[in-house]
Amino acid sequence: MSYTLVIHGGAGNITPAIMDAQMEAEYTAALRAALAAGSAVLRNGGDAVAAVAASIAEMENNPVFNAGRGSVFTKKGLNEMDAAIMNGRDLSAGAVAGVRNIKNPILLAREVMLHSGHVFLSNEGAAEFALKQGLEFAPDEYFFNKSRYDQWVEIRDTDYTQLDHKGDNLKGAGPIPNTGHKFGTVGAVACDANGNLAAGTSTGGMTNKRFNRIGDSPVIGAGTYANDRTCAISCTGHGELFLRAVAAYDVSCLIEYKGLSLRQACDMVIKEKLVKMGGEGGMIAVNARGEYEFCFNSAGMYRGMCNSEGREEVAYYG
């Protein structure tokens, strides 16, 4: 029974200078727990969608990541979360944006895909659907994280919007203080024993974001995409640029229409197209042959993989 599972926990200015031994141990344990959750599904004959959901839910439950329990705070001091999942077998997909108090947004995205008759739900409507489907809610206190809160307090009275994975700002001039800890969007891609692919991504977005801003993570084709004929992709980085580049789908197109390899396609989008646009970040990818890629143009990316051949890898730096 062959399978491949690949995960990420965000990309950006991830260097040994910001990672002490304790942080490395925390991320290693977190990434390995996510790999264990997803690989258990695949090892027991489960499909790629279930494995991706299991891995991402595990990361959503761990506050070291900017997703689920560890989500950052908006301008209003709230946690607004986005997530998407896609099945490469039939191109079915589900996504949610701006949801609050949902313990595992990725599980809600999967319910949208399977039972809503729609692809993309947002805000109160998504919460209403979650209630109907019996998904688990959690109080505001569950999502409170002191370091995330302090990060927000330092910029809440400004027009700065902080990219959680990067130590600078999107609006205004000058550095944002106290950006030593790096956290990020989470994602997973998988190829199951039947050669079916799936991709999923989940995020808390940007610190101090306004106007119900939505990034690339829940947008099918931008931050998340899966097609058994080509690849499964989950992205992390500066969402506005990944949206404009239609980054995830672009990799699939380069494979389908130009015959590029998985590595060539990922490199062209991340290391050429996005660089020219000024976009920083990365992506993980897998195809139906179980080939996989970690691709990023930033200093590092929290990432890991495991497969049925017994290989397991966890890494952070470039």
Automatic annotation (TrEMBL):
Organism for this UniProt entry: Nemorincola caseinilytica
InterPro entries: Ntn_hydrolases_N, Peptidase_T2
Ranges annotated as spanning the membrane: none
Pfam families: Asparaginase_2
Protein name: Isoaspartyl peptidase/L-asparaginase
